[in-house]
Amino acid sequence: MIDLGLTKLAVIGVVALVVIGPEKLPRVARMAGTLFGRAQRYLNEVKSEVSREIELDELRKMHKDVKEAASGFEQEVKQSFSDVHSEVQSAFSDPLSNPLLDTPVPDQHAVKAKDFRKKKLARSSAIPAWYKKQSGRRTRVLSGAARVARYRPAGSRKSAPFH
Q1: What is the DSSP string of 88-157?
Q2: How does pLDDT run across 27-56, given as a tens digit for each residue?
Q3: Which residue from 26, 28, 60, 82 has the highest number of Cβ atoms inside 10 Å of its Cβ?
Q4: Which residues, other chains included, contact 132 with Cβ-Cβ below 8 Å and sequence gap of 6+?
Q5: In this structure, how many other beta carbons lie within 10 angstroms of the beta carbon of residue 70?
Q6: Given this model, what pLDDT does residue 149 score?
């Protein structure tokens, strides 16, 4: 903007006093102040309008991007749904090659049970018993009810009605 210092303003004031005169100077100064204020308000309104337009344009662009992303996602979902639907239809149309309808033979159950036992043995015996005893690790865990029954005083035990 215009660089007005104190000396320049003083020179302008002296020239205005000489040209306009002392009687009319206050009215002219008031009018110049109101015009300057109106000009500032008008410039601020224009700036805010331009910034609103820029923000509105950015929002429109963002809305367009979101719509494109949503439509792309919708297309992907529809494609995967149609693929799965066609696979299911083909599985039910040819029942001989359907892996869902194959019943496991007893040998498969035996193999699975044997593998399970091996894994359980490996889990339970991975740490030697002497180490468990030495480190204070419990080898047997009591349930809450068994713990209460074990540590209940002898006088307060109730006899069970069914033996």
Answers
A1: HHHHHH-GGG-TTSPPPPHHHHHHHHHHHHHHHHHHHTSS-HHHHHHHT--SS---HHHHHHHHS-GGGP
A2: 988 998 999 999 999 999 999 999 999 999
A3: 28
A4: 138, 139
A5: 10
A6: 83
Residues 124 and 116: their CA atoms lie apart, in Å, by: 12
When pLDDT is averaged across residues 92-100 and rounded to a whole number, the result is: 64
| Residue 29: count of CB within 10 angstroms of its CB | 13
For residues 82-99, one letter each, b for 16 or more C-beta atoms within 10 angstroms of the residue's C-beta and e for the rest, the string is eeeeeeeeeeeeeeeeee
| Gyration radius (Cα) of the chain, Å | 46
- Determine if the pTM surpasses 0.70: no
Alpha carbons within 13 A on the beta-carbon side of 140:
3
Q: How far is 103 from 95, CA to CA, in rounded Å?
A: 13
Long-range contacts: 22-27, Cβ < 8 Å, 24+?
none
Amino acid at 3: D
Using a pLDDT cut of 90, give the percent of the chain over it. Answer: 34
Residues, the chain:
163
* 16 contacts 25 by C-beta, under 8 angstroms: yes
Distance CA 80, CA 84 (A): 6
The encoded tokens of residue 134 equal 């030495």
